Amino acid sequence: MLACKKDDGPEPIREIQDQTPEDDKSLVKYLQTHFYNYEDFENDPDNHKIVITIDTIADENSDKTPLWDQVNTKTIEIKDKNDNLIPNKMYFLVVKEGIGDKPSRVDSTFVTYKGTLLNRVVFDSRELPLWFDLTDVVRGFREFLPELRAGSHSMNNDGTYDFDHYGQGMFFIPSALGYYAQSILTIPKYSPLVFSVALHKVNPADHDNDGILSINEDPDGDGNPFNDDTDEDRIPNYRDSDDDGDGTLTKKEYDRDGDGVPDDDDKDGTPDYLDEDNT
Q1: Where residue 39 sits, what CATH number does that domain have?
Q2: What is the spatial distance between Cα 109 and Cα 130, in angstroms, rounded to a whole number?
Q3: For the chain, which has fewer Cβ within 10 Å, the N-terminal or C-terminal residue?
């Protein structure tokens, strides 16, 4: 008589504080054993058509400088299930800064990119630019893009565009800044990710069309519009057309006299568009 194995149900999600150090070990090993084609950029600095490529340090490449000796780091705090802040380290490298504007973390960006796993399997890539709303991408992507500047562009006779002098770089992120416990197509759960990206154009975003750029919808001034929700309706201000929930649209309350300064009729230090007592 055969016994049936008990169904243990879905695998519990790993604790971020346990997964983060494992991801960092994997990233450090990758950075110490891989290099990018830095010599191509050094030997032809005015050629803005060179694409970033990464390879293993071995054999004829054994004398190459590892990425580990070139990258910068940034620490991003991610909340665990108990709202404890867990520091996650991302590594990045600006290969060419670009000449135009830098995006904020909530702007729209016109980019080409390639994303790979640490085993160099490509899970996504775009050779022709497309628009990315940085509020809709993984955390690591929007944390890195402001390190780059956009480039210039010109129209060809056939209606296509040529892009030049654009920013290029790469970043290396732990799974908590990527998809973490989600399994997305060819991306396994808890996968650290590698991206190379070129930034061609930037469009400052106003997601709720209230006349205030999304990056400026940050009343607490911490540089993070994602955590500002004045009327506590679970819609962040940058996507809320009535920030204070008083029934009057933000764009009507913001600057009625047109002097460029947010109105504060009762002079209590809180602008009308964030003050439910003033409509």
Answers
A1: 3.10.50.40
A2: 8
A3: N
